[in-house]
Each structure stands twice: as structure tokens, then as C-alpha cells.
Amino acid sequence: MAEVILQGINKNFGETPAVSDLDLVIADGECVVLLGPTGAGKTTTLRLIAGLERPDHGRILIGGYDVAKEAPAGRDVAFVFQQYSLYPHLSVYDNLAFPLRSPARRLDKNEIDRRVREVARMVRIDHKLDNRSTRLSGGEMQRVAIGRALVRRPAIYLMDEPLSSLDAKLRADLRLELKRIQKELGSTLLYVTHDQIEAMTMADRIGILTEGRLAQIGTPREIYSNPANVHVAARLGQPHINLFPANLLPDSKIPAGTQTIGARTEHLDITLGGHVNAHVAWVEHLGDQNHLHIRLGDCKLTTLANPRLPVKPGDPIGLALRNPLYFGADGNRVV
Amino acid sequence: MSSVSTAHSVVEPSRTSKRIAASIVIIYAVITMIPLLWIVLTSFKSPPDSISYPPKIVFQPTLEGYCNLFTTRTRQTPDYIASLGEPTSTCDEITRSRNMVIAGASNYWPRFQNSLVIAFGSTFLAVSLGTFAAYGFSRFKIPLAEDLLFFILSTRMMPPIAVAIPIYLMYRQLGLSDTALGMILLYTAVNVSLAVWLLKGFIDEIPREYEEAAMIDGYTRMQAFFKVVLPQATTGIAATAIFCLIFAWNEYAFAVLLTSGAAQTAPPFIPTIIGEGGQDWPAVAAGTTIFVVPILVFTILLRKQLLRGITFGAVRK
């Protein structure tokens, strides 16, 4: 395990910038999750660290060494791809043993066997070691892919949306398991996802990427409650944060320069039978809570509500803000 | 009911259409097999039976054709033959019954060996070069890649024999005429374009992530190529190898032109059998029958890969 540092990384594909001026420090034993929409440069960042792409500018240090000239094999990283990661002509056992049998390592047979079986137990695939890798379910394949990374003790684990092709239940299980394993091994992990629940639950720190730039990095709590700009705020929160013009709701505390207000469920107070400034447009019943769609002037807002709140479409309600997020004309926070 | 049977027919052809399809396939197979069957039957006929009219379907099988194929014989007087001891082999006996004795081995076996060396040698070279070239075109940014690929393909746009005379002159200058090396190089040159194009298609279909995973797992690109790409390209390699082998094995025109002795292959040799002591059709047929066997064996060994290979791309994964 080691510290990984990215300094001023730039990478263009032809005319298109994929990563711009990226500075990132991943501490030894830390789990950093990169969150961002498709095309934000998340995967490119991982591939740059792994050596599958070369940066146009900038330095990458793994454990204090500049790895610019190292081939992927020499960088001591492990990579879990989003898909296609298992060698289809090999058994599960041989897939797990593949990195250990590489000419770069040359471990003896007993040691390989011991490590393969240990990791197979860890990712709960030890009952299928002799299966062809193509004869597995999606979840099993992905567990083997993760196992093939874990079988080594590299400087850093790089994982590119390893759970995205799985169904919801399996994803939740594996998410927990991955976090447990990472804690147990104390491993350095850079994890890429566009799933905010994965990001919130697994990360020590979350980095938000937009258009190849690191918009903000911080603990999940910081990113959620203290977003630097509209892009970051829009990444987290379910339902999606409501953004509307500053003059739409009366709020005495609006700071100067505010153009847009961002309000999540916890920033909206609903009162019934008093002052009326909005109407319920639609109610979605989720079971434990309701999605309340509210019409406020020309704007539509969505918020969560207690299912016992007695409202139906068309009902008048009172809406008030409680410490919402204020954004200026440039999209940055105004405090 | 009708809707059910319609839905059924979409998934599974009806019994009648299956039968019609099967009969068409069988008829076609029989028609294409008749010449082969004719050759095999002729190889077991005696020379008079082989030219009798109408052709004999039922006849007394004999190994005379095969004996004549592998031996040279001289005519002798019956007295001389009678003075010899017991015949040493079946062939000896058959030959003596024709008032001849075996003088020695014919050139068929050496020519057959030449065919084996040249065809398998050039196939191995063409497929190896083709695999590496196809991998390069598939994975790396090569300047003018499109033009290079077109250039490689363009070598196939005319019949190879069109360049026979320049090649003949060139080979004479280089001392490659009538050498196995010369023929291997020639057939490799003709086949490599086919190999590059066929294999590029196969390698394009293998996701890069496999090699990238292997490279991160501690292998160099070359090692990743052998450990991960090659095993997955076996289908394509097998199919390509069969196509290359069939061309090199059956090639006649260049072989006639460029080989006459030491490096002569079987195709130009077989017709020369006719000239030796009358029209010996059974010997020609025997030579042809044996000549078909290696391709048959090779194709049967690789038939699973070949089938997957030639239907490749028909179904998207």
C-alpha cells in the first residue's frame, strides 16, 4: 500500500480534453471515490494511474516514485474493469492465479495456491474454483474480477464501476463486502462510480469530477452539506436538488449576489392550513415515504414527505425555506 | 390454433420445410461427392476396368493402381519372370502377372513429402505473420493503416499467375527455382494478405480489456498477446490456416512453372503418371486419393473451429 499523488495532470484525446489540471492526493490506506457523470474523465483518471494512457502533462507519483516511464506491469497497481475482465479461456482458479504467475512475480506454487484460496474465500467464490469463468453469473464474475485484484497487495486498487452491471440487491451486498475488505486490508483504493449511494457509503473522501476537472473533494458529509457549486450539489441527494430563482420564495437571509437557490428535502418546510404559496401537483407513493411534486409559480419542485401527510394533487400548501444553499450567477456558492 | 402454429413456425421450421431443406442438402452433398467417389473407385480398378464403357459400378477391386503409383516397373519375358523366386509382396505378384518386374520406387512419395513441407511450411508462416500483422493493425495507431491494408488486399486483386513470368525470372536470378524455400516464400506471399484480413476481423472482436488486464497483472504486451489474445483467437487462426493450407496444397500453376525436380509438389507430378506405360488411370486416381487425405484429416481435426470461424460475425454476441 502506498500514497498516490497526481500533479497537474492533463490528457486530451485529439481535440477533446478528457482530464484537465487534475491534482489529487490519495493517502495510504484511504478510499477515494470519484463521482461524476459519463464522460467526466473518471475512467481516464484510473487508466492514467494504471499506465494504460499517458498524460500529456503532469506527474504521477506512486509511493513517492514518478512512474511516468513505467509500463503498466511495473506500476504495482491492480485494476477492476467495468466488464470483460475475466479471461474466458481460463478457470476461476487460473483467473485468480494469473497475476501471481506473471513473470514479474514468479511466486512458488504453494504460495499461489494459498493466496488464491484465501482470496476466493474472501469474495465467497471458493465453491466454484474449477468452473470455467464463462460459466458464472454476473455477480460471480464480478466477485472473481475483484478477487483477481485482491490476490495481490499492490500500491493501489483501481476500480472502475465494478458494481454497475449487477442488480440492485447484489450491488448492495458487494458494496458492503468491498468496504469491509478495504477496511480489513487497510488498502488504498480509488473507486469510480456514478452511483451516489456507493460514493456516500464507501468513500473516506469523495471527489466530484465535471468535464475533466476536479470540482470539489472532501468527506461525504462535506460534499453533501457544503457543496462548492451547483454541479457538486446536483451530484448528491435523492430526489435531485431543486434549483430555482432566488426571488421565488421569501427568505430574509438571502446573501447579496445570490441568483439561484438550491433546496433539498431538508431545506423545505411544508405547512398545511396556513399561508398558501404553492400547490401539490402530484404524489408518488414509495411506501415508506412519498415523493411530493409541488408547483411553485412557474417552477416544479420535488421533495420527500411523510406518507401520513394528508395531501392530494391540487391541495394548497405553504412552503418555506430553512437554510438552503445559495449560488451566485457563476454557479459557485455564496455564503 | 392458427396463431399458435404461426408463432411456432417462427421459432422452429415446420417438419415439411425441414425435410425439404434436408433433401436439398443431401442432394447437393451427393452431387459434390460423386467426383471424389469416382476417383476413389477408379483407384481400386484394374486398368482395363477403368476405361471400360459403360463404366463398371461393380468390379473386382485391386491394389494395382497403388502399386503402380509407388513403383517403376520394367517389362520382362515370361521365362525370366518364371526364373525368379516366390513374389516378395502383393505388389510384386500383381506386377509379375502383367509380365513386369518392380525396378524401384517411383517419385510419388518424395513429391508428396515436398507438398507436405511446402504447404504446411507456407501455411505456418502466412498465419504467423498474418496474426502479428493483424494484431498490429487492430491495436496500434499505424500511420496510413487504411492504405496499407488496402495495399495488402490489392495483391489479391489479380490472379497470382498473372505475375508468373516476373517471378520466374526473379527466382532464376535468386536461385530459388525448384527449391522448397522458394515455394514456401511464394505461397506465403500469396496467402499472407488473406491471413491479415481474416485475422484482423477476429482480433478486432477480442476486447482490449483482456490485454490491458494482463498488462496490469504483471505481463508485458508480448506476454499478454501470447497468454490472453492468442488463446481467444484460435478459432480465427484455425479457419485461416485451413484456407491457406487448401490454397498451398492444391496450387498447380506456379508449381508446374517453378518446380521440376527436387522441389516438385504432387499436383504437377500426378499428371505425369499417365505417360509412363500407357494410360494408367488407376495409378492417377490412387495418387489423387492419397493426395486428398491430409486436407481431409486437417479439416476434420479443426472442423469445430472452422465451422465457428466461417459463420463468425453472423451472430452478434
From TrEMBL, chain A:
**Organism (species):** Phyllobacterium endophyticum
Give the family from UniProt: Belongs to the ABC transporter superfamily.
Keyword Iron found: no
The record, for CDD domains, names: ABC_MalK_N
GO biological process, alphabetically ordered: carbohydrate transport
Q: Keyword annotations for this protein? A: ATP-binding, Nucleotide-binding, Transport
Give the protein name, as stated in the record: ABC transporter ATP-binding protein
List residues traversing the bilayer: none
Task: Report if keyword Cytoplasm is assigned.
Answer: no
One GO cellular component assignment for this chain's record is: ATP-binding cassette (ABC) transporter complex, substrate-binding subunit-containing
PANTHER family, alphabetized = MALTODEXTRIN IMPORT ATP-BINDING PROTEIN MSMX, OSMOPROTECTIVE COMPOUNDS UPTAKE ATP-BINDING PROTEIN GGTA
Pfam families assigned = ABC_tran, TOBE_2
Name its cellular compartments. Answer: Cell inner membrane
Task: Tell me the lineage of the source organism.
Answer: Bacteria, Pseudomonadati, Pseudomonadota, Alphaproteobacteria, Hyphomicrobiales
Xref: InterPro entries: AAA+_ATPase, ABC_transporter-like_ATP-bd, ABC_transporter-like_CS, ABC_transpr_MalK-like, ABC_transpr_MalK/UgpC-like, Mo/tungstate-bd_C_term_dom, NA-bd_OB-fold, P-loop_NTPase
Q: Which ranges carry the ABC transporter domain? A: 4-236
Gene3D superfamilies xref list = Nucleic acid-binding proteins (2.40.50.140), P-loop containing nucleotide triphosphate hydrolases (3.40.50.300)
What are this entry's molecular-function GO terms?
Answer: ABC-type transporter activity; ATP binding; ATP hydrolysis activity
What is this entry's stated membrane topology? Peripheral membrane protein
TrEMBL record, chain B:
Give the main localization category: membrane
UniProt entry keywords in alphabetical sequence: Cell membrane, Membrane, Transmembrane, Transmembrane helix, Transport
Q: Tell me any Pfam family this protein matches.
A: BPD_transp_1
- Biological process, per Gene Ontology: transmembrane transport
* CDD domains the UniProt entry points to: TM_PBP2 (cd06261)
What positions does the domain ABC transmembrane type-1 occupy?
112-302
Cellular localization per UniProt: Cell membrane
Q: According to its record, how does it sit in the membrane?
A: Multi-pass membrane protein
Cellular component GO terms held in the UniProt record: plasma membrane
The residue ranges crossing the membrane are: 20-41, 116-137, 149-171, 183-203, 224-249, 281-302
PROSITE patterns linked: ABC_TM1
Which domain of life does this protein belong to? Bacteria
Q: Which Gene3D superfamilies match?
A: MetI-like (1.10.3720.10)
User: Member of which family?
Assistant: Belongs to the binding-protein-dependent transport system permease family.
Q: What is this protein called?
A: Sugar ABC transporter permease
Q: Which organism is it from?
A: Phyllobacterium endophyticum
